[in-house]
Every structure is written in structure tokens, then in C-alpha cells.
Amino acid sequence: MEFIAPLPFEEAIQKLGDQSVVGIAFSSSEWSDLPLELRENAFFSSRVESARVLQRAQNLLGDFLAANHKTAENGEPMLSLGSRAAFVDQMQEFLTAEGVVRTNGGLTDITSEKRLGLIFDVKTRQAQDFGYWKQGVNPDVLNEFPAARFIRVLDVKEPRELHERFQDQVYLKTDAIWWLEINHDFGVPWGPWGWGCGHDVEDVDRDEAEELHLIKPGQEVEWPKAMNKFKNLNQNLQASTKTLAPELVEKLLKEFGDRVTVKDNTIAWNTHALQQELASSMPPLRQSPVSAAIDLQVHGKLADQVNLALSAIDKVHDDGALNQIPLYETNRPYYGYLQPLDTPTGTVAEYLAVRASGPWPALTAVHETGHLLDLMAIGGRGNFATVNLDAGMADVLAAAEHTAAIQGLRTQLAATASMDMADHLKYLLTPWEVWARAYAQFVAERSGVPVLQSQLAAALQAEKFRQWTKADFAPINEAIETMFKQLGWL
Predict the structure, then answer these.
(1) What digits encode the pLDDT tens for the residues 437-461?
(2) What is the reported pLDDT for 282?
(3) pLDDT value of position 7
(4) Co-location of 6 and 72 in the same domain
(5) Domain boundary among 214, 236, 258
(6) HEC string of the chain?
């Protein structure tokens, strides 16, 4: 079932909010092997290891279920997240900023509309249906509506034979058939009733339940002991290990490490360890992020690449309160460039440009931002620090000079007989270009963004000594860190 509008009520919101974020590369079947108490108290998605991605999804879904509001640009209140489509859009933007790239567009692709839509459908259904179930088994409600009918509400391409057998059948809400047979995928007495299932339930009142001989007139519905594990599931954070295979317990300890604890024949989430893991993965708050200084005038795939680059920079350091300048797409043969502008008070940056068809546009965007910092933020504003050799830049360039990559370029320059090659090598050896390439590598390594690291590797492979190996770069990395700490950017 697809929800198109939030239906807030406390039980659903609490169900989602109480779940601990657990990122791990488990498949759906591996998750289904976990004890119910662990599985139902975890916010996870198959094959997703990033706790940050899961936390973002949980926050957005929480906004949806609670019908939270925010203020629009025109000052009017609006829903923070009002639809499935908005969830997909916001998650795709977040994933792009995190450096997660599109793969096959299918269910295994976390960036795809199909996969994100499935996450929205399943997570909202789980929370909503748990809330409806919990309300429906309240003693007063349960005696008035003691049973439920299993009905089809949505056509699916491949109806399950199991579910077809139960369709339109009525059972007491306390009947174990709901979680032992009908909901075979999730093992709980509420929906969703399986992956891709188009069924739901509707309440059946006492009169009809009595006519069907499910309950006798005047008889109170008995709460079976087997349902106790569902009654306070959000508070029951541990499971017994007595019924678990020893090899499963061993696997859980191996895979989850200190995120689970085993004691006195019980296994439980270590919520403190999970919270610490999530906190350590969060980027620090920036007082003056670089992204605030770049006015993007690009669209489509190039915008995705530049946004990814700016997000990576923001993860690594502050910018020293830059003035805002535009960034455009260029069709010039350069991968990118900074356009300087001479003014009566000195040189300033007029704009940045990046070529969309370049071989590594995200890395280029970082590279050009390095030029911007060189001119407008490091040392005296309006003077290239790589020319004046101030504010620690001399130490960075000195560290670079002693690397194998720079010495390799100098050896090539001394040996070449080609004027064009000599000009190219001289350009690569200019202090401002050495700095910009070093800065791009510093951000790629420090941010851990896979796209930047992949493009860095491509640049190193495309032209020997254009970038540095990780070991060769180590002294430059240290020198940039020292300079940025002196500037107050780290």
C-alpha cells in the first residue's frame, strides 16, 4: 500500500523513532534470521552499511509520520515531508552529497526511485500498521472488534499462493495464524504482510465474529501468552539465546561486534555503542562552509558532481568566510578554471568554471575551489598565497617539492624535446597548480567520498605524476593540516 499523506498517531511515530539505526551489509534473508526483538527494534535496510544514510531516512520518515512542518521561503508553513516522491527526491540529493553514485537503477541500487520508494512503503507501512494493530488490541477495542479479515487492497503482478489461500478469511486478532503463516516474511501480527504484498486487514465486529463461531456471545477475548512478545515490543530490546542456533549467535557477535551484547542467555542491542558509531560518522558543524560561498549556476549531472565536491569540502574544513561567487559550466578545453578580476584594491575571483565533459568533474570542482582559497582566503585576501608564500603555504609547497611526483615532473621536463610537453610540464609545476592538485587530493582523502577517490585514482592513472600516491602525498597532507589548523579551519 502506498501512503500519499501522513496520518500521525503516537504509536506509529514511537515505533519508528524507538528503532536503533543499524548499518550492515546483511541481505534481507540474513536480517530475517535475527530474533524478532532485535529485528523489530532496528532501523535497517538490506545491504546498507552507512548509518548516516539510514539516519537521514529515519529522520525524513519521522517527519512524514508526525506531519512535521517547516517554514517555506514565502513564510508560509509547509510539511517537512509530505509525500513518497518528496522522500525519494530528498534522499537522492543526500546520497549524491554523500558520494553514493547510481549503479543499475534497480532494487539493489540505493539511489534508485524503485529502492527508495520500497524503503518508504515498507517503513511507513510497518510503523502505521503497528500503530493500528496496537490500537486494535486495546482490551476495550478488542472486545468490540475481536477479529480481522484479510483483504486485497492492491493488485500485484505475482500474487502469492499463500496469501490467495487466506484472502477474505476472518480470524481472531489473537490467532497465531497472523504471524506464523500469513506474515511469513516479517513474523509479526501486523502489516505489511510480506514483500510486495497487496493485502491489508479490516476490523470485524463482535456480531460477525460470533456468527462465524470465532467467539461465543459474551466471551472476552483471551490474550495468549504467545502474543506477549508483541505487546511491548518497543520496550523489549533483548531476545533469548536459548532458542538460537549457536552458529547464529557466533555470527551475530562476529558481524555486529560491540553493537550487540550477550549476557545471561540474552542478546540485545548495545544502544550506547550504536549511538556512538552514528555520532562519529556525522560531519562536524561548520561555522563558515565553503558551499555557502559558491553560487551554483549549473544543472543536471554537473550540478550533482559539484554539489558532491562542495559537500566533501564541508566535511573536511571551514573556508574562512569567503564572499559568494558564481560557478558556471564551461565549454572551453580546460577541465576548469578560476577567472580573476583586477580591481583598484587588488585581484579578486570573478567566477569559477567547470567543464561537464571533463574526465573528473567533481575533483576538478575541488581543484578550482583550491585556487579560490589560494586567492581569497589563505594569507592576504586578493593575493595568491602560492605567490607570496604566506600563511603556511611555503611549508606546503616545500613538502610537495620533495615528493617523488614533483621530482618526476622535473625529470620529465629536463628530458623532453617537445615544446608543447615542456609548456604543459612547466604549467603543472607552477606553485598555484601544485597547490590546487594537492588540495584536491587532500579533500578526496580526508572526506572519504568514493566518487572523489575514484576520480583521483583516474587522474593518477591518466598521467604519471599528475597526482601523488597515498604514501608520497603523506608529507603534503600533514603540511596542509598544519596550515588549516593555524587558519582555524580544522
Answers:
(1) 999 999 999 988 888 999 999 999 9
(2) 72
(3) 47
(4) yes
(5) 236
(6) CCCCCCCCCHHHHHHHHCCEECCCCCCHHHHHCCCHHHHHCEECCCCCCCHHHHHHHHHHHHHHHHCCEEECCCCCEEECCCCHHHHHHHHHHHHHHCCCCCCCCCCCCCCCHHHHHHHHHHHHHHHHHHHHHHHHCCHHHHHHCCEEEEEECCCCCCCCHHHHHHCCCEEECCCCHHHHHHCCCCCCCCCCCCCCCCEEEEEECHHHHHHCCCCCCCCCCCCCHHHHHHHCCCCCCEEECCCCCHHHHHHHHHHHHHHEEEECCEEEECHHHHHHHHHHHCCCCCCCCHHHHEEECCCHHHHHHHHHHHHHHHHHCCCCCCCCEEEEECCCCCCEEEEEEEECCEEEEEEEEECCCCCCHHHHHHHHHHHHHHHHCCCCCCCCHHHHCCCCHHHHHHHHHCCHHHHHHHHHHHHCCCHHHHHHHHHHCCHHHHHHHHHHHHHHHHHCCHHHHHHHHHHHHHCCCCCCCHHHHHHHHHHHHHHHHHHCCC
**Final residue before a domain boundary, out of 77, 101, 130:** 130
User: Domain check: are 306 and 424 in the same one?
Assistant: yes
Q: For residues 180, 185, 188 and 190, what is the CA-based torsion angle, rounded to 10 degrees?
A: -110
Instruction: Tell me the per-residue pLDDT of 283-325, one tens digit each, with 9 for 90 and over.
Output: 666 678 899 999 999 998 899 899 889 989 998 998 767 889 9
Does residue 74 sit within a domain?
Answer: yes
Residues 117 and 147 in one domain: no
Please state, in angstroms and rounded to a whole number, the distance separating the CA atoms of residues 45 and 21.
10
For residues 323 and 453, state if they share a domain.
yes
Cell of 218: 459474551
The pTM score is 0.65
Rg (CA), the chain: 29
